[in-house]
């Protein structure tokens, strides 16, 4: 045979057999799920270098093989067995598809959004810190209302003390001097001056703490939105800023010595031995109580710094990443179970079409009842079969195109007796 003779051999190889559509789709879907898992696993495994990448590759390869095997067995083996009546095959197929798909979705979706969820949680903590600092700053601003009230009390007590020493204005004695009323006024004015000094120092510290708080809050926001820091480094920096900001807020809380003011107000309301002195002190105590009551209520506790993000935390943000979750769920859960249902329904339709379901055999009770009472529903009344008139056959030699004979005209007839004994109608 001449190898260069091309007349007896085909010029091209014959085309191969087409691959079934379901096998192609199952393979493509499994490969796509494995690829998504390979992208997601490094975020879940953590670490840097070759080992995390190797773990991610092995897990993705194993998941791809398992997904392809389970889905293909469910479609090619489970669906036909379920159609012929094996319910356990249907249950096993559906449970296998849901288990594999649910496992893939539970790893793929968290891994794809893991870093974004971490970023969102850190930014949300920054907003909580800003709200916390603003609430405490509002409470510390009460020092601006406390200081004038304490200054008025101090000045009044100072004037009363001076007048009492020189002319006994409070006690009513003509000689004046340092009596018991003067000594009580001296004690109260000294306490008022000391508290006022502490409030003024707290006001200066409050202004510095506010500037520090604003600076730290801005630093936190910049670090939280920065892309230059690695995940661990960013968390370390933000945790340090969080601690410093809470310390600055604690300085704000010390700007107004509420406990000291409350104790001094109770002391003033206790009055003194002399009626005039007692009236003066009770009036100052009542005014101080009104000022303290106007201070803002104690702010809430500081928010805790968020712990490292876990897989369960990502599902709390599923609404934020709904498109990603939907695509992962469709690829790994919805489509495989839909393919199995389509295959099952198609095979079921073929079986019903080619071999209709036979009626069930009657129960022993029905058989016994029919044997005793055969006329109750077991014997149906027979209906006469409809009469179908056969067409008139044409002889071989007759002309098929010949006109049909005219029907005989109607007339009166007479009854005749036919050979079978029945009465018939004869021609008149």
The total number of structural domains is 2
Beta content: under 5%
Tally of contiguous helical segments: 11
Average pLDDT for all residues: 80
Principal-axis shape equals elongated
Number of strands: 2
Sheet with most strands: 2 strands, antiparallel
Radius of gyration: 50 Å
Low-confidence stretches are 377-383, 411-416, 422-428
Describe this structure in words.
With 428 residues, this protein is mainly α. It contains eleven helices and two strands. The chain has a two-stranded antiparallel ribbon with strand order 1-2. Strand 1 (414-417) and strand 2 form a beta hairpin. It starts with 20 loop residues before the first helix and ends with a strand. Mean pLDDT is 80; it is low at 377-383, 411-416 and 422-428.
